[in-house]
Design goal:
By secondary structure, the chain is an alpha+beta fold. The chain has helices at about 35-45, 75-85, 140-145, 175-180, 190-195, 230-240, and strands at about 1-10, 20-25, 45-50, 60-65, 70, 95-105, 105-115, 120-125, 130-135, 160, 165-170, 195-205, 210-215, 215, 220-225, 250-255, 265-270, 275-295.
């Protein structure tokens, strides 16, 4: 029987039992992709990560699985796994910031981990330059969410943006509309084939949090995600392009409050000579539990 240690952390969480839970298996050498997928299904969290030795000069090779599929990139798994690598000493802690390079499906990904008294407190993932894709008809986006076009923001149109994963950013008129979503599940698969997963959001009218968002991803086995760092990045790029987020300005996105898992994601964009050069998404990470998973096979 192989005993596979794991830890669970809450990511983008100001306290324990908030944010987005993540399971990290820091010693996943020898596991097949099929077994990783089965373990992720067993953990039944929005994502589970599996860490193996680096292959290309990074800090570690990391694979990310939802209960249904493998992802080349995701935000909260990147931040949570990087913090755990520092906590375990896989990457030596340096204060105030430790640089961790994760070898992900999208390539080397930098996470800056905030460290105090040798303890990782949270991290910020660099998502790189955004790619702006197709405009989404307001009627299609509204229908997907059980809304009418007038429920969308009067000045901002839905648009596909990619900073590692592509999302259809759908700005809504206000937070009351965001809370009243009635998703039409039968429309999700065709919508995602033509555009991308939808990420509805609305301005809160407050300084912090500045925007509230919801992550509804039924085709990935996630009815509602408490925090979606890979979507918060595209949202930040979208708002910067629309003139709603200034370069180097940090603002906070709230997600998960509607399912009693409030998550706070800090976003920022850095400009370069040709436009937005980097998109950053960060937040705090709270250790919650650790244990071992027993798997058939020889002892490790």
């Amino acid at each position: 029987m192989r005993r596979l240690p794991f830890v669970q952390v809450d990511v983008f969480a100001e306290r324990v039992l908030a944010g987005n839970p993540l399971a990290v298996f820091p010693d996943a050498g020898g596991l097949t992709a099929e077994l990783m997928q089965a373990v992720a299904r067993e953990m039944n969290l929005s994502e589970t990560t599996f860490v193996t030795p680096p292959e290309s000069g990074g800090s570690a090779r990391v694979r990310i699985f939802t209960p249904e599929l493998e992802l080349p990139f995701a935000g909260h798994p990147s931040v949570g796994t990087a913090c755990e690598l520092v906590r375990l000493g896989v990457v030596p802690a340096r204060e105030p910031v430790t640089r961790v390079v994760l070898e992900l499906g999208v390539g080397p990904t930098l996470v800056e981990v905030d460290v105090e008294d040798g303890v990782p407190l949270g991290g910020t993932v660099h998502q790189g330059a955004p790619r702006f894709g197709a405009s989404v008809p307001r009627e299609r986006a509204a229908a997907l969410l059980g809304l009418v076009p007038d429920d969308l923001h009067p000045e901002l149109d839905p648009l596909v943006v990619d900073t590692g994963l592509a999302y259809a950013i759908v700005p809504l008129r206000d937070c009351d509309v965001l809370g009243a979503l009635s998703p039409v599940l039968g429309l999700f698969a065709p919508f995602e084939r033509e555009y991308a997963e939808a990420y509805p959001c609305a301005f809160t009218g407050e300084e912090s949090p500045w925007v509230e968002a919801r992550g509804l991803f039924p085709n990935s086995g996630i009815p509602e995600d408490p925090a979606t760092g890979s979507a918060a990045g595209p949202l930040a790029a979208y708002l910067a392009r629309a003139g709603r987020l200034a370069p180097d300005e940090s603002r906070v996105i709230l997600q998960g409050a509607r399912i009693a898992r409030p998550s706070h994601l800090t976003v920022c964009v850095h400009d370069g000579p040709d436009g937005i050069a980097d998109v950053l998404v960060g937040g705090r990470v709270q250790p919650v539990l650790k244990g071992e998973l027993e798997l058939p096979g020889e002892p490790s």
